[in-house]
Amino acid sequence: MTRSIWMNGTLVAPDDAHISVFDHGLLYGDGCFEGIRVYGGTVFKLAAHVERMQASARCIHLEPPYSGAELAAAIVETVEANRIDDGYVRVVYTRGKGSLGLSPSSCSNPSCIIIADTISLYPDEMYTEGMPVIIANRPRIPIACLDPQIKSLNYLNNILAKVEAIEVGVLEAIMLNIEGDVAECTGDNIFLIKDGTIVTPDTSAGMLHGITRRFVMEEVAPACGYTVEERTVSKEELFQADEIFLTGTAAEVIGVCSVDGTPIGAGAVGPITTQLAEQFRSMVAGELAERA
Ligand code: PMP
Predict the structure, then answer these.
(1) Shortest-distance atom of ligand 1 to CA 214
(2) Is the CB of 189 under 6 A from ligand 1?
(3) pLDDT tens across 131-167, in order?
(4) Ligand 1 proximity of 248 Cβ (cutoff 6 Å)
(5) Is 208 near ligand 1, meaning CB less than 6 Å away?
(6) 111 contacts 66 by C-beta, under 8 angstroms
(7) How far apart (Å, rounded) are the C-alpha atoms in residues 90 and 87?
(8) Whose CA is nearest to atom 8 of ligand 1?
(9) 162 classed as catalytic
C-alpha cells in the first residue's frame, strides 16, 4: 500500500497528491519518467536511473527541477517512507502548469512526483516456460521524430504496439524500426543467441537505453564468460535464433519461447538464458549483501 507520495519536495498522502489539469504533462505528455526497482530495501542502479532521468529531461528542454543528488535522496526518502522492501519506484517530471498552447514557455514550474509501490511482474510460469511474443505491425518511432532513448511521458507508440500483443493473447511485442530491423519491445530490450553468441540491436536502431540491458552486457554476461555483440539485427534472425530473451527493470531477464507462434529454439527457455537469469539474481543479491 502506498502511504505517501513525494511531490515537489514534500511527502503527502496519496489522496492529497494532486496535479493541475493545466499541467502539460497531462495535456501533451510533456515530461519524462523513470521506473526503478527496489530489492531488499535498496534502490537498484539508482545512479544510472537518476542520470537517465536528468538526461531525458534535458533532451526535451526541461531543466531538471532537482539536481541528481537531490533526486536520488528524494527517491530513497520515498522508499523509506513507504517501507518498500521489494518494489518499484516511479519518478516523474512534468512540464508543469501552463496555458492551453503547446509552448512550454507558459509553464514556469516543472513538477516532480515520486511514487513507491509494489511491483507486478510477468506471471511466474513465463520465467520457467518462456514468454510468447509477437512482432508488432507498428514500427518504433524513428530517432529523428522522438528519440526512444528519451523516456518521455508519451508512451502511445509503445501502448498501441502492446495492444496488438494483447489482442492476440500475449503480453509483449517486438518492435521493428522504420527500416524493418529489430529495435526493442514495448517495455523491454531484446537479445538473441545464435551458436553461443549473444547479440543485441545497436542503440542506433532506436530504443530506450535500458539499464538492465547495460547491466546484462557489462556485468552479467561477462561474469558468465560471454561478451555481447551490438549490431543491426534483422527480423529474419529472430526466427533463426537458438534463444531470445528480454530485459527490463520489471522483467529482469525473461526467456522468449515463441515469436508470432513460431517456437524459438526448443520452444522453451534456453540454457544460456537460464544461466544469465540465475547470474542476474545472484549479482543483485551480491550487490545487496555488499551494501548491508
Ligand atoms: N524499452 C522500453 C520502451 C522501456 O519502457 C523499458 C523500461 N520498462 C525498457 C526498454 C527497459 O529498460 P530498463 O532496463 O532501464 O528498465
Answers:
(1) 14
(2) yes
(3) 999 999 999 999 999 999 999 999 999 999 999 999 9
(4) yes
(5) yes
(6) no
(7) 10
(8) 187
(9) no
Which of the residues 45, 151, 194, 235 is marked catalytic?
151
Q: Strands 182-185 and 172-176, how do they pair?
A: antiparallel
Q: Is 90 helix (H, G, I), strand (E, B) or coil?
A: strand
Residue with cell 526541461: 62
Read off the pTM: 0.96
Task: Report pLDDT digits (tens) over 157-182.
Answer: 999 999 999 999 999 999 999 999 99
158 lines ligand 1 (CB under 6 A): yes
Phi, psi angles (nearest 5°) of residue 284:
-65, -45
Mean pLDDT in order along the chain per 10 residues (292 residues):
92 96 98 97 96 98 98 98 95 98 96 94 95 98 98 98 98 98 98 98 98 98 97 98 98 98 97 98 83 67
**Ligand 1, from 33, 46, 188: best to mutate by most atoms within 8 Å of Cβ?**
188
Residue 284 φ/ψ region, left for φ over 0, alpha for ψ in the -120 to 50 degree band, beta for the rest: alpha
Residue 218 burial by Cβ neighbours in a 10 Å radius (0-12, 13-18, 19+): exposed
The pLDDT, as a whole number, for residue 279 is 97
* 188 C-beta closer than 6 A to ligand 1: yes
Return the residue whose CA atom lies nearest to atom 6 of ligand 1.
187
